């Protein structure tokens, strides 16, 4: 029989899997939205960025709320919000409604991701890389299944029926989650006085946040540029586009689990540093791929490299905070993962519109080169501003 730690861990995995599954279901629908709602790449980028806007604005406040009033309340609120957003997608017949759906989904993700990752950090302080790697693998599995499931449901059920089915799935998970016991994580501690402005007093946390923003913006850029590129250059439909993203997610899931396990034992910093350089080297070659098979291979390698940056960055951020007990006495996990989610979402928010503008005015290849330069600059920044910092466990 599972103890409460294992139950909480597996439910965090399930919820994050569900969130990324639903996030990915509309990826193969981008050409449909583009044609039926008459959206250009910049408009589509803004709508996609609404998810990140919700994460950006609410992650840190919800992290503080979770610290003070309990992680269970915030975690349940995230699942409820995800159910609502999924149901509303079925009625998104205008750019404005689609934007609102994406925004609500982002706010729900801010609640579930911040509370969930903080709980894992508190339950497994010395195994964060391994446990977070498994959670990122669940995220990758959601990424795998989201686009092909979205494409197949749209093909066989139709638009509104597709989202009603997914909303029913979310509601069933919400009911199950109501009966899970969270132990000491349910109550919170109202004596904790963490504030948002404390983040700026830890330079290592700030600089690592900048690196996370740049890396996640590359993900956001690819999500908006690649579907239309695959459709325009190679004539792929929604189902085929979903399969390309699904394969990338499959390899990404296994690599995240491996990176998390190894980074606990060999240090988080080398994975982040070399992952940045590998990502920068992969990006420009996407525009040179002669066929979808080569392009899918390159996308997969890029996903592995970016995963090597983002997965170890999470426990590394926590250990940077733990090394400063004067500024962060007795905790801070909720606020730390709120900061990570804020930086991650800022990158996802900036990536789509920036990628859309670069494609529109400079072209696909030039946009990839610019993002590669940003990744190289972030590697240099990490080398001199983060990798030299002392950590609690010297990782």
UniProtKB/TrEMBL annotation:
Gene3D superfamilies: MFS general substrate transporter like domains. It is a multi-pass membrane protein. It is found in: Cell membrane. The chain crosses the membrane at residues 7-30, 42-62, 74-92, 104-125, 132-157, 163-183, 204-226, 238-259, 271-288, 294-313, 325-349, 361-382. It comes from the Bacteria. GO terms for molecular function: transmembrane transporter activity. Residues 8-390 form the Major facilitator superfamily (MFS) profile domain. SUPFAM superfamilies: MFS general substrate transporter. The keyword Transmembrane helix applies. One of its GO terms (cellular component) is plasma membrane. Keywords: Membrane, Transmembrane, Transmembrane helix, Transport. This is Multidrug resistance protein. The lineage of its organism: Bacteria, Bacillati, Bacillota, Clostridia, Eubacteriales.
């Amino acid at each position: 029989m599972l103890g409460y730690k294992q139950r909480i861990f597996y439910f965090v995995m399930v919820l994050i899997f569900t969130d990324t599954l639903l996030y990915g279901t509309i990826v193969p629908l981008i050409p449909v939205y583009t044609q039926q709602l008459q959206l250009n790449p910049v408009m589509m980028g803004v709508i996609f960025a609404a998810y990140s806007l919700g994460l950006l604005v609410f992650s840190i406040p919800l992290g503080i709320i979770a610290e003070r009033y309990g992680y269970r309340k915030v975690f349940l609120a995230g699942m409820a919000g995800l159910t609502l957003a999924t149901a509303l997608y079925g009625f998104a017949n205008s750019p404005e409604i689609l934007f609102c759906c994406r925004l609500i989904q982002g706010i729900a993700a801010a609640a579930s991701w911040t509370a969930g990752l903080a709980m894992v950090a508190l339950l497994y302080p010395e195994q964060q890389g391994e446990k977070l790697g498994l959670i990122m693998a669940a995220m990758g599995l959601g990424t795998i299944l989201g686009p092909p499931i979205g494409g197949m449901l749209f093909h066989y059920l139709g638009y509104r029926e597709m989202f009603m089915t997914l909303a029913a799935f979310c509601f069933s998970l919400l009911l199950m989650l109501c009966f899970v016991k969270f132990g000491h994580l349910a109550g919170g501690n109202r004596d904790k006085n963490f504030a948002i402005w404390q983040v700026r007093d830890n330079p290592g946390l700030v600089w690592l946040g900048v690196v996370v923003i740049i890396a996640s913006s590359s993900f956001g850029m690819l999500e908006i540029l690649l579907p239309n590129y695959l459709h325009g250059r190679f004539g792929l439909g929604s189902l085929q586009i979903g399969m390309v993203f699904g394969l990338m997610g499959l390899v990404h899931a296994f690599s995240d689990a491996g990176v998390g396990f190894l980074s606990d034992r060999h240090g988080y910093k080398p994975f982040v540093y070399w992952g940045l350089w590998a990502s920068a080297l992969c990006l420009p070659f996407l525009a040179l791929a002669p066929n979808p098979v080569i392009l899918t291979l390159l996308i997969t390698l890029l996903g592995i490299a970016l995963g090597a940056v983002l997965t170890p960055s999470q426990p590394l951020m926590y250990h940077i905070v733990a090394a400063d007990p004067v500024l962060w006495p007795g905790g801070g996990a909720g606020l730390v993962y709120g900061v990570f989610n804020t930086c991650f979402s800022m990158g996802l928010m900036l990536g789509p519109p920036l990628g859309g503008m670069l494609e529109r005015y400079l072209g696909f290849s030039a946009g990839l080169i610019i993002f590669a330069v940003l990744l190289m600059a972030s590697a240099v920044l990490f080398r001199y501003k983060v990798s030299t910092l002392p950590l609690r466990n010297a990782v």
